Amino acid sequence: MEAVGQIIGGETAAVLIRQKSGEPVELGDLLVAEGDGYTILQVKDLRYRSQIPQGMRELASGFNLEGYSGDVEFLEPELRNYIIAEARPILHVREGEPLIPKRLPRFFREVRRIREGDLDFLEKPRNPVFLGHVRSGSKVLDTPVYVDAVDAITHHILIPATTGRGKSNLVKVMLWSLAEMDRVGILVLDPHDEYYGRNEAGLRRHPSNNVVYYSPDAPVGGNTLTINLRSLRPEHFEGIIPFTQAQEQAIARYYNEYGDEWILKIVKGEELPGVQQVTLNVLRRIFDVILGVYLDDGKIKSRGGVFRERGGESTIKDIAASLEDGRIVVVDTSRLMGEAELLVGSVISAEIFRRYQQYKADGKLRRKPVIGIVIEEAPRVLGKEVIERQGNNIYSTIAREGRKFNIGLIAITQLVSLIPRTVLANMNTKIILGNEMAQERAEIIGSASQDLSDDNRTIASLDKGEAIVSSIFTKFAVPVKIPLFEEFIESAGLESEDSEDEEIEFIG
Amino acid sequence: MYRFAHLSDCHLGAQKQPDLRELEFEAFRMALDDALQNDVDFIIIAGDLFHSNIPNMETVKRATLELRRVREAGVPIYVNYGSHDYSPSNTSMIDILESAGVIEKVVRPIPGKRLGLEFTVDEKTGAKITGLSGRSRTLEVDYFMKLDRDALEAEEGFRIFLFHSAITQFKPADLADMESVDLNLFPRGFEYYAGGHVHRSGCYHEEGYGPIVYPGTLFGSYAGDLEENARGEVRGYYLVEFTDKVREPEFREIRPAEFEYIECDVTGRNSQDAFSLIGREIADHDVTGKVVMLKIRGELSSGRTSDINSASIRERLESMGARVVQINRYGLSTREIQKVRVVESDVPRMERRIFREKLAGLDIKNRRLMDEGDSIAVELLRRLENEKAPGENRSEYEKRITEDAEDVLDLDLGGDGT
């Protein structure tokens, strides 16, 4: 055994390990102490220790710094000065079975670095979503880390990260695995148009042809995002657009009177008894600003072309059908106003939720793929204030009840603290990327599936692409290194995009 | 100012009932007459002229006479294949009529790494017509994807793009299952887009494109179409005036008969009560000289669905003067027998749903089969429906059917059909 240290004391939460000289141990390193199976320990803190009194060390340093002597040195320095690592036992493995450690590894036991085979119990699940490789400090093992798509998505996934820590990269890597599955449909509401890869590496290159793209300005091969105004119902706006009571009542009146033509009638300024002109005018203005629809020369015009009077009647059904076929549907909402973006997601999610409720009632749910909804900047719809001020919306409904209907959220946020604890507690898989904000770290740690109370500093020091996966489906909080998406798909052996140069055989 | 008529989805030969077949043909004749009376310079038929690539000879004979009449009036007819006209071996009636000089197929590919299309120039008006034929979606999208749009867009003059596909953006909500292609796959800037395949009329205006127009079916090929006729859907064709641009296309209604729609919900009644209710419902309608579409739906509380005697209902309606009676009882079920799971009145959609239900219940690993199995099965079923053509001997017929099946299944059985 190549020892890197030896256990010299400590307690359950913090085993003290003296580091062997020349075998540097890093924060987050995974070490192994053998005995009755083996115990995996994770380094949580590092500190200096010395056999030489502080005064002597200060004096020696003074000599050195002030240039009194070039040969001031300690007797047997590697024995007298050393590093102590504080490590926590995170898992005990006995006969290949991972167990929660209930006792300390033997006192004075030597520890070694973790090896590939030590994590053989991390099996590939049935519906594997690849997240990266196990990371020990900043070293990456060859052991891949997966979560089961069906389990993880139905129990919701939270991805907390500050900007620039690689959350888009992580989501792309995850979606790549998901695109291979027909048991999972994923709706991606993409406010930055970064997942499909219109101009760079993205899901567009997935060989399964399982990725469907909608954009107001779709490239050839994509679908143009158009939604007929008749597809919108008042409940789609619930919890998304803050209406006053008078406006809500007016909307209800228009909907009762005109059914699916309610928005058209409002935009056309058609008066209705009991609705004040001023309310009608405000509603027209709201629809103008948010949906981009307005009246021009007696005709309804659409700014941006997404919400429109003619066309786009089947879009929502088409998207829902693709999701039900287990496809990934990326909706580019980068050209939409914030509320309009959420509204598009709300309409689609509501349609899926309605369908899946019906399937459950009909006993068909088991045969349907699980649906995941990727929502960026999740507090916009799951935030405490939003829910308190505007009431529940379809996203918060899914966060609470989605599991019953095999629908889950993949929520991405910089600000976990804005999401209510009750919602956070329902997010049973958290893929934690680096975060400098202490308050956010505290919220993440407080709601994680494993005890991460010692990981405050570790989370703060996570580098780009490094993450901790804390899930009810993993025995311990697994440190992972997420590959760079471009390198990841290159390693998948994709052919160059320009390779199909065959002459077309045409019939018809 | 020039004029052309834009028809589509005539589906000649679709109706099996002689009276309906007569009306189907009447609609075709009326449309051509109306176009000629409006002095059109040419006619476009955007696919599915016939219901089958080899229709029965009586249908062909009558259609040919009509088309020849138009041709002899100096009006050329430009067509593409519809999904029903398509034949892998180029033995479609469209090809035969083209060889006889009655019509002109305008889909002329220029092979290469991009799919170029040659324009057909109408001699009199100078209009340049090109386009694609209707195929199964995968191939259709493939062709559209590879289309040399730049070359098409660079062509100068008055251009018409002929196609036989649903466009995703314009699909009606109830036809969401229909395969479709996105508008962004079409070349931009043409003066007119002549569509077929969608059986409902519609004229759409999108920035960067001339009017995108579907005349819809001329009469209707399935019970669902006829039911829509009876519920007020207007059938016809578009008359288009143009110089270097088109004017707003004018929809010309073609109504070979009056329709009457009767719907009767018998839910919760026993078969005897239901029968009486239908009788009372019928009595409230004036059906004289009309095509009657009677829809009976709902779950009987007791009794058999066969207790509701269609023959006697038909007799009653005929005695009231109905010209043709069509009874749709697909939505009728009873608690006493196993519930009917598939409720569709449109035959292809019903077939597709059945296949989809079956596929969902099978543990098939082949992704393509799971995705396209229903389309493949429906297409195969339709090809196998093709009857033996007059003059075709048995081995020729078998060979043709085998080739059709090979094409649908994307198989090569070795050429001898064994």
Describe the protein's architecture and organization:
- The complex is a heterodimer of chains A (508) and B (418).
- With 508 residues, chain A is of the alpha/beta class.
- Helices cover 30% and strands 26% of the residues of chain A.
- In chain A, the strands form four sheets. A twelve-stranded mixed beta sheet of chain A has the order 9-8-23-22-21-10-20-19-11-18-12-13.
- In chain A, strand 1 and strand 2 form a beta hairpin.
- In chain A, helix 8 (315-324) packs across helix 9.
- The longest helix of chain A is centred in the last third of the chain and has 25 residues, at 338-362.
- Chain B is an alpha/beta fold.
- Chain B is built from eleven helices and 20 strands.
- In chain B, the strands form five sheets. Chain B has a six-stranded mixed beta sheet with strand order 4-3-2-1-15-16. A six-stranded mixed beta sheet of chain B has the order 7-8-9-12-14-13, with no helix packed on it.
Q: What is the fold's blueprint, element by element?
A:
The complex is a heterodimer of chains A (508) and B (418).
Chain A: E1 3-10, E2 15-19, E3 30-34, E4 38-50, H1 54-66, H2 77-80, E5 81-94, E6 97-99, E7 110-113, E8 128-136, E9 139-148, H3 149-154, E10 157-160, H4 167-178, E11 184-190, E12 211-215, E13 223-224, E14 227-228, H5 245-258, H6 262-267, H7 277-291, E15 293-296, E16 299-302, E17 307-308, H8 315-324, E18 328-332, H9 338-362, E19 370-375, H10 379-382, H11 384-390, H12 394-401, E20 407-413, H13 421-426, E21 429-433, H14 438-447, H15 456-460, E22 466-471, E23 478-481, H16 485-491
Parallel strand pairs in A: 10-20, 10-21, 11-18, 11-19, 12-13, 12-18, 14-17, 19-20
Antiparallel strand pairs in A: 1-2, 1-7, 2-5, 3-4, 3-7, 4-5, 5-6, 8-9, 8-23, 15-16, 21-22, 22-23
Chain B: E1 2-7, H1 18-37, E2 42-45, H2 57-72, E3 77-79, H3 93-99, E4 104-105, E5 109-110, E6 116-117, E7 120-121, E8 128-131, H4 137-146, H5 149-154, E9 159-164, E10 166-167, E11 180-181, E12 192-196, E13 202-204, E14 212-214, H6 223-230, E15 236-242, E16 250-253, E17 258-265, H7 271-283, E18 290-300, H8 310-319, E19 324-328, E20 332-334, H9 347-360, H10 367-384, H11 394-409
Parallel strand pairs in B: 1-2, 2-3, 3-4, 8-9, 9-12, 10-11, 12-14, 17-18, 18-19, 18-20
Antiparallel strand pairs in B: 1-15, 5-6, 7-8, 13-14, 15-16
Helix pairs in contact in B: 1-2, 9-10, 10-11
